[in-house]
Amino acid sequence: MNKPLRALVVEDSEFDAVVLVNQLRQGGYAVTWERVQTAGGMREAANRVLAEDLGGERFVTAPLGRLDAPARRLVYANAGHPPAACSARRRTGYAR
After folding, report:
1. For residue 50, which of 35, 65, 82, 89 sits 20 to 30 Å off, Cα-Cα?
2. pLDDT 10s digits, 26-83
3. Other C-beta atoms within 10 Å of 17: how many?
4. Do 87 and 51 fall into the same domain?
5. What is the spatial distance between Cα 63 and Cα 22, in angstroms, rounded to a whole number?
């Protein structure tokens, strides 16, 4: 029996997204999925999916980010919460 999996795929290539979903299906998952291409699309879809899944009875919050390691850059959305704490080898501080 396939395990149900709801996936939000953040990918600019539709072909690559389909390949990923097919690999999940081959791995035994019954995938329901949606592809978005931008950070804004990811935030909107994540909010919508969480609201649908929780039925308005509960509330979930979490930071959502994208790390560009070679550029040493983190872009994140925190929905108005205090800044996320971050840590590097010799430094600890707050994301700006």
Report:
1. 82
2. 999 999 999 999 878 887 888 888 778 777 677 666 677 777 888 888 777 776 677 7
3. 19
4. no
5. 28
